[in-house]
Fold this protein.
Amino acid sequence: MEIAILNMYQRLRDFNVPAPVLDELFSNDKDLDTLTDSWKALEADGLNGDEIASEMAKIMLDELGDELIQSLSITDEK
């Protein structure tokens, strides 16, 4: 995995995006391209990596919903 992609993965994980969600996202080339393009656009706007990850994580978690997040958390703990 390319360093920039690994960096995005780790930063999103640091902002509590569940690993199964990230694994699915990063395994799909189209989704990964969209994420990468969005990340680069936000960098060009002057945001740093943590700011970008924080904003993207909020969007991802909002779209996933609380019930799914809780079910993934329980699965991660097992």
Summary: The mean pLDDT is 87. The helical segments are 3-14, 19-27, 29-44, 49-64, 66-77. The CA atoms of residues 24 and 47 lie 25 Å apart.
